[in-house]
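Bumping my old thread because nobody answered last time. Still need a sequence for this structure:
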């Protein structure tokens, strides 16, 4: 049973990270290449403070890691398999539900 609980926790953390469009954009950007926060903020068009909050969430979920590089910090995916998982999820959702719109959690039903 411990494995099931661990699997559920991992999926829940991954889902929590993907629940926010900015965090999705960060993960997709980091899938392409590691990046420094200032560069990510510029790329995504958001403030560094807002980016910092999202990066903290992604670190807490175990999806990204901060790597010290001299006096700066670079962020990257915690495991290269996460990039493959993001690609698989993206293509699976597109293949299955390309003609559907996801309903907000507050509304009835789900995609």
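Sorry it took so long. Here it is:
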């Amino acid at each position: 049973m411990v494995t099931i609980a661990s699997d559920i926790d991992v999926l829940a953390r991954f889902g929590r990270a993907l629940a926010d469009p900015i965090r999705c954009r960060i993960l997709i950007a980091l899938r392409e290449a590691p990046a420094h926060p200032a560069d990510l903020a510029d790329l995504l068009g958001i403030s560094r403070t807002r980016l910092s909050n999202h990066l903290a969430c992604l670190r807490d979920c175990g999806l990204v890691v901060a790597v010290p590089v001299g006096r700066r910090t670079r962020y990257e995916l915690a495991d290269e398999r996460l990039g493959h998982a993001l690609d698989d999820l993206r293509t699976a959702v597109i293949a299955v539900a390309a003609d559907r719109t996801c309903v907000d959690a507050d509304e009835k039903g789900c995609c």
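The longest helix spans residues 80-97. Let me know if any region looks off to you.
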